[in-house]
Amino acid sequence: MSDETDLGPLDRERVAALVRAELADILERDVDQVPEEATFADVGADSLALIELVEALEERLATRVPAFHIDDADLEGLTSVRDAVDYVTARLPTP
Hints:
It is a single chain. By secondary structure, the chain is mainly α. The chain has one domain (7-90): ACP-like (Non-ribosomal Peptide Synthetase Peptidyl Carrier Protein, Chain A). The protein has 3 helices and no strands. The protein has helices at residues 12-27, 47-62, 81-90. Helix 1 packs across helix 2 (47-62) and helix 1 (12-27) crosses helix 3 (81-90). The N and C termini lie far apart (25 Å).
């Protein structure tokens, strides 16, 4: 994945690209195989992959959004790539 500084403004589209790319990297798949419409089960992401995704997103966003954190308790409610994108987008500061 390219450096997060290549993302430009952190709008929903950029967040979706980041989530999809990070998950594709974790699952060792092409990003085209991780559509936003897919559930995590659809793309073969188990609980370990989701933990890796959370860690990757927290690390990647920490330089852009100080103290960005995904609560462990919220993971149960995230069942799809879209859920993850919406969750992250909702926690970003508004421009």
